[in-house]
Design a protein that fits this description.
Layout lengths: L9 H21 L8 H5 L5 H17 L2 H8 L7 H12 L6 H18 L11 H12 L12 H10 L4 H7 L1 H11 L7 H38 L4 E2 L10 E2 H14 L8 H18 L3 H16 L5 H24 L20
Antiparallel strand pairs: 1-2
């Protein structure tokens, strides 16, 4: 049973099919999908019942062929993400008589993207209540009761848990995303109840904001850590836990982080690239917690000096140790910097079209 009524006439359905055809064929080229365009939709011209039936069959096949992560990545990185493109796809899936789990996932994404396209950009998280979301979605799904049933109330708990997280790793380990996903999949056709659509749209919007805030916080934390390590004279880092080498050049790590800022536009699930990011953050934190080798050697040398001269003022001795340690660290850094000219150029990380969330 579809949520929306049929198109008001076949002409409107034909026009919508042509719009979706343009998006699908462009997406297929982007992901190098081996599919043929619809001959009737590509040719255009006057619509007939035979042409419309052929177009419906082609759209149905493409609905099954295109994965939700491909749709998400494409729409969030191309001009097709404009309001009209998202809306025509959303109405297309809501009109389907027999929604499959893959259709549900696409509706889930398209609803939050539609809300994002129509809500003020500076809206505060605290104002995104069910009533507000229902008003934005009203032109699509109609009037909605904002009294959520009991089975939807855990979503508020998951949002509160996500808000308290201080890093991406903490967000993924909290279980908030996985618990909400299980709630959605277990709801089956109840998901398409208008109140449920509003509740999940609100959850997805707020989680998306939390995700990107933590994402940029983690990337900036890595970049700040790499900068501090360079100031200590460190040029390579053991990043095996993040599936890089045991002596990964800091220059290359910085370039990877900059590319990640562009790459992570869509998914907020714990995919492989995001796991590498959280592991890299941990590797940098571990390196920052370690004492500098030059500083450690200087402290050992100063310990001997203090033992040989008990009459020396303790406060003055501490200042001396710090000064000598800084000098030793500076010397080490200078020595290392002389080798930078021979360091191989870092390869930029390739753009990953794999599934992410």
């Amino acid at each position: 049973m579809s949520l929306l009524p049929d198109y008001k006439n076949t002409a409107a359905e034909w026009e919508a099919a042509q719009q979706i055809h343009a998006i699908y064929t462009s997406l297929a080229r982007e992901f190098t999908l081996e599919v043929s365009p619809s001959q009737v939709l590509e040719a255009g011209g006057e619509m007939t019942d035979e042409k419309l039936d052929s177009a419906r069959q082609w759209l149905s096949r493409m609905d099954d062929r295109i994965e939700v992560h491909q749709l998400r990545q494409y729409l969030q990185n191309t001009q097709a993400a404009h309001k009209e493109g998202v809306l025509v796809l959303l109405e297309h899936f809501l009109r389907k008589a027999d929604q499959r789990p893959s259709d549900r996932d696409k509706v889930d994404f398209l609803l939050v993207q539609h809300f994002f396209n129509n809500a003020p950009s500076l809206i505060k998280d605290g104002t995104v209540e069910l009533k507000y979301v229902a008003e934005i979605l009203k032109p699509v799904i109609g009037p909605v009761s904002v009294t959520a049933p009991e089975w939807l109330k855990p979503l508020d708990v998951h949002i509160e848990k996500a808000v308290s997280c201080k890093s991406l790793n903490e967000l993924f380990q909290s279980g908030a995303l996985e618990s909400a996903r299980k709630l959605k999949t277990s709801s089956e056709h109840n998901y398409f109840d208008p109140t449920a659509l509003v509740a999940f749209t609100r959850f997805n919007f707020l989680i998306r904001r939390i995700f990107f805030r933590l994402l940029h916080q983690d990337i900036n934390g890595i970049l700040d850590g790499l900068r501090e390590l360079e100031q200590r004279g460190v040029q390579v880092l053991d990043c095996r836990r993040a599936e890089f080498s045991a002596e990964e050049p800091i220059l290359r790590l910085r370039m990877i982080c900059q590319s990640w800022k562009v790459m992570f536009q869509a998914e907020y699930s714990l995919g492989q690239p995001l796991r590498l990011l959280t592991e890299l953050r941990s590797a940098v934190d571990v390196a920052l917690d370690q004492k500098e080798p030059a500083e450690t050697q200087a402290e050992k040398s100063e310990d001997k000096t203090v033992s040989a001269d008990d009459s020396q003022d303790k406060g003055q001795s501490k200042k001396s140790r710090r000064a000598r340690a800084a000098a030793a660290a500076s010397a080490t850094a200078a020595h290392n910097n002389r080798g930078k000219d021979t360091e191989p150029n870092a390869d930029k990380s390739r753009h990953d079209h794999s599934k992410r969330k």
